[in-house]
Design a protein that fits this description.
Blueprint lengths: L2 E6 L7 H16 L3 E6 L5 H12 L5 H25 L4 E4 L6 E3 L8 E4 L2 H8 L3 E5 L2 E4 L4 E3 L4 H13 L3 E6 L4 E2 L11 E2 L4 H9 L7 H10 L3 E5 L8 E3 L10 E13 L12 E7 L2 E7 L14 E12 L2 H4 L1 H10 L4 E4 L2 E6 L4 H12 L2
Length: 369
Amino acid sequence: MSIIVQKYGGSSVADVARIRAVAARVVETVHDGHQVVVAVSAMGNTTSELLALARSVSARPGRRELDLLISVGERVSMTLLAMAIQDLGVDAASFTGSQSGIITDERHVAARVLEVRPHRIRAALESGKVAIVAGFQGVSRAHEVTTLGRGGTDTTAVVLAAALGAAYCEICSDVDGIYSADPRVVPQAEKLDEMPLDGAIALGAAGSKVLLTDALEYARRHGVSLHAGSTSRPSGTGTALPPGQAPDVVTAIAADAQLLHVRAGDLEDAGALSGMIRAWWTEGKQLHALLDRRNLHDASTIPASWSVVGPAATVTAVGRQAVTDPGIVSRAVAAVPGRWWASGATWSAMVPPQDADDAQRALHTALIG
């Protein structure tokens, strides 16, 4: 009997009706003959609400206490989902990150998984239960509760799939797969039946909201087969993400409006910020960088020698043709003039945040159609 790991995000379990719908989908997968492990996020905007609550009582809440606080959200959704599955006649048990054996380093709020010891998850599966795991969290070797940062539930699902030898890991959300661009912004965007994993990694790094880069990188390293699909559709549908290089032709466009443009000191002095640097360049003797704002919890994180220019966005084309075909590059520059750069299998341009949607539409029209 094969193991399938399913991840459900906050929008998929935002209320009781949606939790019951997820429970029905999980039970359907069990009836198809699979053992199922579910990694689940907090309901709706619970994490944001808990962070706002913390900041209402403290201007700079400690990271250890933040981890303890925000880990509560996933514990609520995991237990409710287990109850809903049990009501449908299938046995289920819920587990926190620490009970699941997800061991991390000691960096609160943005911990990295070091190893997985899924002994209790295996025991639950062997006894015929669905295992429901609180996403986004683990435990350090010092027995401290930790959280995994942005997209942490994706990471939870992938690391469990790798540790359990799952047939595949399904990332379920409110969209039915990966599109050539955000269909809410680009009306002519089309769903991709397949995207090589390296291409999906490039798309995630460029700002795609469907999949998070850390989880994809882990999947590549550990040979985990992925699917991206809709919670409202049957398991195994959506976009398949097989191992492989980024596509030859330009296949997808992504935009990211959550960046901060800074005039930087020496990048080697960035320390913990190194993982947040999206791009950097020089203008004369001045060094510039784009930082991912999502994990910048307060301005004090930025070195005092750096100055903030202001918010910024990028728009990116994914496909090796974007950096090897002069005609494609010329069309891209014409569609989105200004500062641009090419790296690996991507072409990117910096734009003001208010222009990100228009730039995404223009680049899609110029390069994909």
